[in-house]
Write a structure and sequence with these properties.
The complex is a heterotrimer of chains A (346), B (307) and C (278). Chain A is α/β, with parallel strands linked by helices. Chain A is built from 12 helices and 12 strands. In chain A, the strands form 2 sheets. An 8-stranded mixed beta sheet of chain A has the order 6-7-8-3-9-10-12-11, with helices on both faces. In chain A, strands 2-1-4-5 form a 4-stranded antiparallel beta sheet. Chain A starts with 5 loop residues before the first strand and ends with a helix. Mean pLDDT of chain A is 87; it is low at 79-91. Chain B is mostly helical. Helices cover 68% and strands 0% of the residues of chain B. Chain B is built from 11 helices and no strands. In chain B, helix 2 (41-58) packs across helix 4 (96-132), helix 4 runs parallel beside helix 7 (167-194) and helix 6 (152-163) crosses helix 7 (167-194). The termini of chain B are close together. Chain C is α/β, with parallel strands linked by helices and 278 residues long. Chain C has a domain at 1-90 and 172-180 and 202-258: P-loop containing nucleotide triphosphate hydrolases (Rossmann fold, 3-Layer(aba) Sandwich), CATH 3.40.50. Chain C has 10 helices and 10 strands. Chain C has helices at 51-58, 81-90, 98-101, 108-118, 124-137, 154-166, 184-201, 212-218, 236-241, 246-254; strands at residues 7-20, 23-36, 40-45, 66-71, 74-75, 91-94, 172-176, 204-209, 221-226, 229-235. A 6-stranded mixed beta sheet of chain C has the order 6-7-8-3-9-10, with helices on both faces. Chain C has a 4-stranded antiparallel beta sheet with strand order 2-1-4-5, covered by helices on one side. In chain C, a hairpin with a 2-residue loop joins strand 1 (7-20) and strand 2 (23-36). The longest helix of chain C is centred in the last third of the chain and has 18 residues, at 184-201. Mean pLDDT of chain C is 88; it is low at 262-278. Classes of the chains: A alpha/beta (346), B mainly alpha (307), C alpha/beta (278). The complex binds adenosine-5'-triphosphate (ATP), adenosine-5'-diphosphate, iron/sulfur cluster and magnesium ion (2 copies). The site of one magnesium ion (MG) has 4 residues of chain A, from helix 1. One magnesium ion binds at residues 48-49, 203-204 of chain A.
Chain lengths: 346, 307, 278
């Protein structure tokens, strides 16, 4: 092991809205190891999607990545065009390191969809509704120059079979809209996995589907993970994080407020916001547990409260100390939290 | 999930009694549209220009130095800057500046009159067809489609021929030619809004059909309708000029820019001012109204907004 | 508390068929159930199983193709005009998409007062006073009463929608996925609000959700729907502990635990069947 598969450092993404600057992501850092899944959880608007999209620079025109590094270690492949070589000492012979945020657009396009696969909440967003699965999947392979036409088709059929689509030979001739929601999500995963990317970014891949389908898709992603792919899973469902992810990053108002191994975080959340998220989660069999919602709603990013952005909603807040910036502090057992009170308790 | 917090989602829910900053300003669709319109400089300047034109048209009898039909045989085809005739005179010795102002009055009167007629017709037919659906919709939209297929200029020619060359005939001719597109738009808007949950919610509250159509659907459909109307106004001004060009405009000596331009063409070399001023003012007016329309369209376009 | 055991809503083998060019869809297929006064009937099922259609049938917003729905003994399909409006007052609804269900050009207070105005209750001043009281009750600061719906967050919008539904003091509140569009933290706020209101006002509820945990929390009895049919109806306790129908078992098995302790119990649950392509 020469280091993580993906290493994000101090990512900052801003939106310009008239005279205001909206800091959607403010200094996010995390690592993804091969064969492991990292969950990014948080409420709507906490910056999960913007973080994921920043990594591949798939952002609207009003967005600007103001700072940060996202170093991806990609395996060297025959036929791959040369990327940026960085820190030649640290990169092993079989890998090269690229900074996704600094890569020229042309080279980034070679990385997108090849070294990094993406899965979205809504498959229709990622797939072309006017093309058959066959066209989309084979063209994806051909565009990345991975193989020839005949092999591309074979691979495409195999990929559909791998994600559990029955009769892939027949199904491949259908259009995305002819599939049910669950099947469409599978087809999108098949497309994302076609090039055997080292990293898969999944943005709420199961939010729009039923629980039974969610279970199937997660089981499918477990297989992907077991083959050594690193996965970033964006979700607001703590159940999904528990079932599928090894580590969890909790985001609030564009910052990471807590990071820990999944079980540690969900069994003993440290940051008051994480505690609140858990208290808010309803699950089967806990009818007797009183509901403990977090009061209020997430802040407007253009008018963030000073210091710990959670302080207007935090039951433990003590002013003025909580109005000062809170940095992520490493606790004894290797987990991190951005709350001085949690640190004091630990 | 779907919701994107914007600076307009200011009402943070800290419940009653918690220390929140001053309550934000209520801002309905008109206030927001106005804010957006104002930030578009070209549209805003155009709006001021259009406003001035309207004022000028209203105040024509007081602003114009001469009556539009007043002839002065001693001062025919005088050039620009002639004392008493700032923009010169035409072949009959009529003051060009005054005729321009009265021409503006004709143009705006016809355009606004026609579009108002069109709007009323379109709202009535589009709203009823869109909201009621079924048989009524089939009949109304069938009628609209027939009208749509009918060449509008031909219709205007027929109407003016039958009713004679009067302002009233022009308004009717141009208005009827443009209500069709508008009615289709109204219906499309109504059909789209009918799908919104709030219509079902209103029915669940016990609201009746007409209430839903007029009080709940119409106010939300009005933005896009106003946008088309605002684009239809310059089109109507142009149509009025066009009909005048064909000799179907208002009865002379009532001035019309179209007629002034046609007349001016004949003396283009001898008296260029006769054509240049009406042509320039005509073009400027069309542009200004179109820019206002552009501004309105952007102001009412909710595509960049939450949900 | 109102009399338990008294039937408020009775659905007698109702079916709803939607006909389109693509053919007929049996959205609701011979459903029979009762909602007792004072109880909360939970309705769960996967998307497209017909839950919202049941809501509309119970609200009398759509006529059933077959069968009938009785509200307090009156057949909704045969009641007309004034009588229907009188019935409407007694049943109100909360929708999944709070923004979409509020009148965008009315302020929060005007939205809440609108049902009162429609039913000619009180004068303008008293209606506004009542609207402010209701907003306060659901946790919307009355100082924000004159803002427009889009100026509120999703959770606040849903509170306003709930206030509006309560304005007429209905006997029956139909909630169609009222928290599905909301974040977990906001969902918990709204659930708590609904629990509190239901208790203090003695409401009868039809509570629809695809989230079994949410339904477990609120419902007295639970009905499970699949492909338009009712596959199981039982008291909540019983349904969640000893589900009888295999579909109910499948649904329960697919729920992912958050706090972990129950993860092990899921192992012997039946496997999730392969989904068919539509
Ligand atoms: N196109 C955009 N223009 C302006 N601001 C944006 C845009 N997209 C996102 N934002 C802002 O960035 C912040 C983070 O958004 P993001 O979509 O990442 O949230 P999220 O946590 O993924 O929420 P959700 O669960 O709704 O997807 C939000 O506050 C949002 O207002
Ligand atoms: N107005 C309609 N026209 C045609 N089909 C409809 C209509 N409303 C619902 N359906 C169909 O009825 C079925 C059940 O719908 P619905 O009750 O909305 O499901 P749910 O609320 O459980 O998601 C679906 O197959 C849906 O497509
Ligand atoms: S820093 Fe203060 S306000 Fe922030 S989470 Fe910790 S205790 Fe709460
Ligand atoms: Mg998102
Ligand atoms: Mg539904």
């Amino acid at each position: 092991m020469t280091g993580p598969l993906l290493s994000v450092r101090d990512l900052r993404t801003h939106f310009v809205r008239g005279k205001e600057t909206l800091r959607a992501v403010q200094g996010v850092s995390f690592d993804v190891e091969p064969g492991r899944a990292l969950a990014i959880v948080g409420e709507s608007g906490s910056g999960k999607t913007v973080t994921a999209r920043s990594l591949l620079r798939l952002l609207p025109r009003t967005a600007r990545i103001a700072n940060g590094q996202a170093i991806l270690r990609v395996p060297k492949r025959a036929g791959a065009s040369g990327g940026h070589r960085r820190g030649s000492g640290s990169a092993s012979d079989a890998h090269r390191e690229v900074d996704l945020l600094a890569l020229p657009e042309r080279e980034l396009r070679r990385v997108r969809g090849r070294e990094v696969g993406m899965v979205f909440q809504n498959a229709m967003e990622a797939m072309n509704p006017t093309l058959t699965l066959e066209r989309q999947l084979t063209e994806h392979l051909l565009w990345h120059g991975i193989c020839g036409k005949t092999e591309a088709r074979e691979r495409a059929v195999r990929a559909l079979g791998d994600v559990g689509i029955p009769e892939p030979e027949r199904r491949i001739r259908t259009y995305p809209f002819q599939l049910s929601g669950g099947m469409r999500q599978r087809a999108m995963i098949a497309m994302a996995m076609l090039t055997e990317p080292a990293l898969l970014i999944a943005d709420e891949p199961t939010t729009a589907v039923d629980v039974t389908v969610q279970r199937q898709i997660l089981d499918l992603l477990v297989e992907v993970k077991n083959r050594g792919t690193g996965i970033v899973m964006i979700t607001h469902d703590l159940g999904v994080a528990r079932y599928f992810c090894d580590d969890v990053v909790v985001m609030y108002a564009g910052r990471v407020v807590e990071r820990a191994p999944t079980t540690a975080l969900l069994d003993e959340p440290q940051h008051p916001y994480s505690v609140g998220l858990l208290g808010s989660s309803v699950e089967l069999g806990d009818r007797a547990r009183p509901l403990l919602p977090i009061p209020g709603s997430p802040p407007d990013l253009a008018r963030l409260p000073s210091g710990c952005a959670f302080h207007p909603r935090c039951g433990r807040a003590e002013l003025p100390r909580c109005q000062t910036d809170q940095d992520l502090v490493t606790l004894t057992d290797g987990r991190e939290t951005a709350c001085w009170k949690a640190v004091a308790d630990a | 999930m779907g919701t994107i917090a914007t600076s307009e989602t200011l009402a943070t829910d800290l419940g009653a009694g918690s220390p929140v900053a001053d309550a934000p300003r209520p801002r309905g669709q008109w206030a927001r549209a106005w804010d957006r319109f104002r930030s578009n400089r070209l549209a805003f300047v155009s709006l001021i220009f259009c406003g001035l034109l309207v004022l000028l048209a209203l105040a024509a009898p007081w602003v114009a130095t001469h009556h539009y039909a007043e002839t002065d045989y001693n001062a025919r085809l005088t050039p620009i800057g002639t004392p008493g005739h700032l923009l010169g005179t035409d072949l009959l010795g009529r003051d060009v500046a005054s005729r321009l102002i009265y021409g503006l009055r004709t143009a705006l009167f016809v355009a606004f009159g026609a579009e108002l007629t069109a709007l009323v017709l379109a709202l009535l037919i589009g709203l009823v067809a869109g909201y009621r659906g079924g048989r009524i919709e089939q009949v109304l939209m069938g009628f609209t489609d027939v009208m749509y297929a009918f060449p509008s200029y031909l219709f205007a020619v027929v109407l003016v021929t039958v009713l004679g060359r009067s302002l009233f005939a022009l308004i009717l001719a141009i208005g009827i030619a443009s209500w069709v597109t508008q009615a289709r738009l109204v219906r499309a808007q109504v059909l789209a809004l009918k799908q919104r949950d709030y219509v079902e919610a209103a029915r669940a509250m016990g609201a009746r059909g007409p209430t839903i159509a007029v009080k709940y659907i119409l106010p939300n459909a009005i933005g896009p309708i106003l946008v088309t109307t605002s684009f239809a106004i310059p089109a109507a001004i142009a149509a009025e000029a066009g009909l005048a060009l064909l000799g179907l405009g208002v009865q002379p000596p009532t001035p019309s820019w179209g007629a002034m331009i046609t007349d001016g063409m004949k003396y283009l070399l001898a008296a260029p001012h006769m054509m240049v001023f009406p042509a320039v003012l005509f073009a400027l007016t069309l542009l200004a109204f179109t820019w206002v329309g552009d501004g309105l369209r952007d102001a009412f376009d909710a595509s960049g907004e939450q949900r | 508390m109102p009399d338990a055991g008294e039937v408020l809503v009775r659905a007698e083998s109702v079916s709803k068929v939607f006909s389109s060019r693509a053919g007929d869809v049996r959205a609701v297929d011979e459903l029979s159930f009762e909602i007792m006064r004072g109880e909360t009937l939970g309705l769960v099922g996967e998307s497209g199983s017909g839950k919202s259609t049941v809501a509309r049938l119970v609200m009398g917003l759509q006529p059933p193709t077959e069968g009938r729905v009785l509200f307090d003994g009156a057949d909704l399909a045969s009641v007309r005009g004034r009588e229907m409006r009188a019935l409407r007052r007694r049943m109100q609804m909360v929708f999944q998409n709070p923004y979409g269900s509020l009148l965008p050009h009315y302020t929060a207070a005007a939205n809440v007062a609108e049902p009162l105005r429609l039913h000619k209750i009180g004068d303008q001043d008293s209606r506004r006073k009542e609207a402010l009281r209701l907003l306060d009750m659901v946790g919307v600061n009355p100082r924000f009463a004159d803002l427009y719906p889009r100026q509120f967050s999703g959770g606040q919008q849903q509170r306003i929608a709930i206030a509006r539904a309560l304005a007429l003091n209905p006997d029956l509140l139909v909630c169609d996925e009222p928290t599905s569009a909301l974040d977990v933290s906001i969902q918990a706020q709204i659930l708590k609000l609904l629990v509190d209101l239901r208790e203090s006002l003695g409401l009868t509820c039809l509570f629809i959700s695809h989230n079994l945990a949410v339904v477990e929390r609120l419902a007295t009895r639970v009905a499970v729907m699949n492909h338009g049919q009712l596959v199981e109806l039982a008291p909540a306790e019983q349904l969640f502990h000893t589900p009888q129908h295999s579909y109910t078992q499948t649904l329960l098995a697919a729920v992912l635990p958050v706090r972990g302790a129950k993860a092990a119990t899921l192992v012997d649950a039946p496997p999730v069947p392969e989904e068919e392509v539509t």
